[in-house]
Amino acid sequence: MKNKTRETWKKMKNNHEMDRRITRMAKAQPMISSRMIKDSLELPVSTVTVRRRLCEANLFSRNPRKVPLLKKRHVQKRLQFAKEHINWPKEKWRNILWTDESKIVLFGSKGHRQFVRRPPNSEFKPQYTVNTVKPGGASIMIWVCFSYYAVGPVYRIPWISLHMSKYLKRSCCLLLKRTCP
């Protein structure tokens, strides 16, 4: 009886060590797959067991958030804008027209599917996100606007390759429903 208890204890101790190794590797490399963890640690368990252990450690497999690839100067400009406008009253913010454009890929693959293992409420930490850049290929461009008072319509922009100043001029003409020269 003592032998069996001792073996069970050794097995449990090995499982705890294995669990720590699995968790440590997933935290160090959040984009790594359970198959790669199993293979690189040479574990004597299945990939399903590895996934189960990761879930028990609150490291569920999720799609990483896509965030724009920002350079240091972009971050500095955003911070500067936030600091300059932190004390604006609500009435002033209500006079702002917010705009955005988006490029939608029509054909082709957007790439392979990627997963990340991360703790809860950490989806925007840089180590758990994927940087994106504007895609190429067949696509359409849309432009939208909104303010405190209303949401504007969605416009399809057929002139993607125009210079930025012409693009802005035409966008404003669309918004004001005027014909552009």
From TrEMBL:
What Pfam families would the database entry show? HTH_Tnp_Tc3_2 (PF01498)
Q: Which GO terms describe its biological process?
A: DNA integration; DNA transposition
Which GO molecular function, any one, fits this protein according to its record?
A: DNA binding
Tell me which residues make up the Transposase Tc1-like domain: 19-87
Q: Span of the secretion signal?
A: none
Which PANTHER family does the UniProt record give? TRANSPOSABLE ELEMENT TC1 TRANSPOSASE, TRANSPOSABLE ELEMENT-RELATED
UniProt protein name:
Transposable element Tcb1 transposase Transposable element Barney transposase
Instruction: Provide the species name.
Output: Channa argus
The opening ranks of the lineage are: Eukaryota, Metazoa, Chordata, Craniata, Vertebrata
